Amino acid sequence: MPSARGKANDSTANISKEQSAKKFIEYIMLDGMNGEEQHAHQLSKLLEAFQVERADMADALVSALVSTILNNLDSLFREEVGLAGSLKTELESLQRTFTTIQAVLHDAEQKQWKSEAIKIWLRNLQQAAYDLEDVLDDFQSQAQERGSKVTTFFSLQNPLLFRSSMARRVKAAREKVDAIAAERIKFHLETGVGEAVIEGNKDRETSSLVDESEVIGRADEKGEMISMILSNRDDLSIYAICGMGGLGKSCDIQDLDPLQRHLVKQLVGKRFLIVLDDVWNESRDKWDRLKQALQSGGRGSAVIVTTRLEKVALMMVTVPFRRLGCLSDDDSWSLFKQTVFGMGTNEGNADLEPIGRQIVQRCGGIPLAIKAMGSILSSKSQESEWLHVRDSEIWDLEDEVNRILAVLRLSYEHLPSYMRQCFSFCSIFPKDYVMEKDELIGLWMANGFIPSRGQLDLHDMGSEIFSELTRRSFLQEINEHVDGTVTCKMHDLIHDVATSIKGYECCLIEPNERLKIPKTACHLFVHGSSSSTNIINLSKLPPLRSLILDSNSRFTFNISNPSNFISNQKHLKVLDCGGRLSNAVFKSLKHLRYLRFHDSYVKALPESISSLHNLQTLNLQWCRNLQKLPKGLKNLKNLKYLDLRDCNELISMPVGLGQLTCLRKLSKFVVGKDKGGGIDELKELALEGELSITGLCNVKNSTEAKNANLIEKKNLRSLELYWRSGKYSESCCHHEHGNDEEVLDALQPHPSLKKLCITDYQGVRFPNWMIDLLLPNLVEIELHCKRCDQLPPLGKLGFLKVLSIWEMGALKCMDSGFYGDMESSFPSLEVLTIVRASCLEEWTTTNGTKHFPRLSSLTIAHCPKMVKLPMLRSLKELEVFGANVTVLNSLTMNATNLTSLRLHEYNEPMSIPDGLLRSHKHLETLWINGFSLKSSSVLLDNLYSLKCLILHRCSQLESLPRGLQNLSCLETLRLYGCESLVSLAVNGLQDLSSLSSLEIQSCGKLTSLPERTQQKCIACYKTVCLFDKLTADNRVFHKACFRCHHCRTTLKLSNYLDKSFEGTPKMARPEKHRG
């Protein structure tokens, strides 16, 4: 953190500094209130402490699979009256066997952790069940190819031959299952032991919410750390917090990651605070090299280290380290109560307290364990349930490290088996991987992990599972986007637990790791990076059920025919890949339920995809050149997700899409002109999340539009309406606009909508459902409506955060009709964009009314007639394209808290008044593009906080403006297209003590740079080039970046610059390229 400058700013600087320090320390010392430790080491380290093998913890989870098979058998008997002879007999025998097995499965899955024999038995059963599932899949797929029901097929040719063939396959599978089922007797398994039940007590669920900002039991440690950091005046102080995993050394500091990376790049000469979290390195040589780079900072810099190893703490610290102890009994009980009952709520049954205190005592004062226990018990209200947790045998594990894993394991054991499957499958993703909710549910469905429950759709059941895993902190960092997309992450330590459970089946290949794939692997995720040079021999892979090749993967596959390889993986249920596969591939993948392409070059998909009758998910996001879908897509009756995000070249939809009644996600629909491709295909689809409808110029009238039935789609969150789209957009851009208004009136969405975009609408008025504000939950609105001369009263929308107004050429005034009759209009609006409103003259406000109290970002572009604007004191970011001096003065005079200002002029160069930024002491980023800026300008005076300065196309600028040398906070300086620029500065750049990046392009008259172009890196002491040569290509100079190419340290430019440019070498202007 930079030190305060000037006596007048000392107080403010100290307050800011103290607040910043407190923020860091609160995060570091957080005692587990947000779950567990943020950067726990890999489970292999923990398992070394347990002295157990990873396989000992792995679970064989068969219950959900058996349930799926029984449901499939029920479906066959229910739908097929033609089953007869030996085939029917074998299927009935299988049903009885699996029903018998199902009765003891829960007890077996509970006991497998202590019995290797039971675990092996379950795995054998699992493999046999997989084989049988494939047989049933083949049976149903062949039947679907010949008709909608199996009876249709049996009325065709060779029914006896088919029945005989299937009977033999089913008999072989049944005999294998019978042999395994018979072995259950020797394990003395109990029948009728029920699954874990997820209670739906809404009062308890609501009260379990926790304010993550509260910290319990760490006040002394936090205060001591803050005091040490603020009083530090040494060159570099290193503090260590030492303790075992789960004590709360770390925290969720993800939001600070970008800030930390920014600080690391610019350490030189700065006073900084860096957190090195969860350090395991014991090599003094490696630490000394890092410490050498850290010592380049300013006096008072500090590093905080969290570690579990005392040896590491002793090696790194410069002051005595702090050993973090366990929570006291009182703090432990407070944390437990807060997790179970919530803050400030009734503590429930008084009889539970003594049991709860005993459970807390067993947690040993470890916040991670306490929080996990609280998560289990927050949904349990019976005394017997609490006693069951207290008396669990899992507490028999000894020592503190074992206790943490025991608690996490106990949380896992209290999940139903199908939910354990879903949780442990997440181990296939890399750590810190951002997972989409619908992606997870699609993968769970494809692998048969989600059981059917009555009439509940598998998608809805998957959503319940996701919510429960979230509530119990197995999935964290939940982020719901305005378009309905939900993302999450898995905590590192939780990921380790999942890996220990499912590691024998789920295999993750990451860059620079040994590529050893176990023979038991069923699910493979290949995760790559641009630096990876690994080679994977696909031909030696075991039969897989999931193959996910990450879109960022750069692995080399040593196989000549990928299509042939994938065709031979006949058991695949999940395929996620890039590249182009032949039409023949999909004819052999009858079991496929999840298919994702990420090929930006593909224009059409193989027609054989239409034969994948089991397909549930078809994800084509980022297929930017895709123009058409398979014609037979309507045959995929089980399809639930069709993801067409960013498929912007799609020109049509296959006919009959409305027949896909199971479809829940359809991100894009192109309205066609022909029968079967109209907007009425959307009528019966219960869509969720995001929907973009393009080609609305093909809708003939309001009756057609109303048949889309948008008003009944209550789970839609984002709706985009385009009157043209794709390749045929030109044919729609001049369409007759006589029916646009009635069409838009009939496209009224459900009130639950959060995002609305209307583009290329040719009507002159907005629909009644917008004027009457029948969408009260809108958070984001984007309008491209060039013939509308008035806006709806959007100021009344209490949740609106983002408003974009584009190309509204008929709009002349934004006045009271825009605000609505409210005491405070636009109470939540944060971002406002107005672009190409060519007739807009006035933007007025109403006296006595509070407008835009939270507006922080404003963009005004190409509004040449605008002369009057409101006072917007809350603005932090302002960007203006092509505005006059009056507008600039009006905006900048009132918005004195700006941190970012971008000014662009694309017509005749306009002068900027010298006093324009006189009051903007908080400005950090300034971009001036196309203005007449002179070297004598005092524009930069008083901008003491400026960190980034970009001067673009300032044609009259001969040298950098005066006042530049006073910008001691300036870190980045970029000069583009300043054709008159001869020298960088009158006094050089030596006073820019923070400058770390200088970029120069297209400055044709600048022919000299500092002569000291080679110096020693202060971090690794190797020779580095500070400047690229000023070679030019038609006056375009290469970018100069000052970073050591040996150790990647960003260097402090001012350390290497001469006091002046006198005597610096001149460059001969290079010849232009020929031709």
TrEMBL record:
Domain of life: Eukaryota
Pfam families: LRR_R13L1-DRL21 (PF25019), NB-ARC (PF00931), Rx_N (PF18052), WHD_DRP (PF23559)
Matching InterPro entries: Apaf_helical, LRR_dom_sf, LRR_R13L1-DRL21, NB-ARC, P-loop_NTPase, RX-like_CC, Rx_N, WH-like_DNA-bd_sf
Assigned keywords, A-Z: ATP-binding, Coiled coil, Leucine-rich repeat, LIM domain, Metal-binding, Nucleotide-binding, Plant defense, Repeat, Zinc
Domain LIM zinc-binding: 1015-1075
Listed Gene3D superfamilies: 1.20.5.4130, Cysteine Rich Protein, Helical domain of apoptotic protease-activating factors, P-loop containing nucleotide triphosphate hydrolases, Ribonuclease Inhibitor, Winged helix-like DNA-binding domain superfamily/Winged helix DNA-binding domain
Coiled-coil segments on the chain, per record: 91-142
PANTHER family xrefs: NB-ARC DOMAIN-CONTAINING PROTEIN, PLANT BROAD-SPECTRUM MILDEW RESISTANCE PROTEIN RPW8
Protein name per Swiss-Prot or TrEMBL: LIM zinc-binding domain-containing protein
The species this protein was found in: Hibiscus sabdariffa
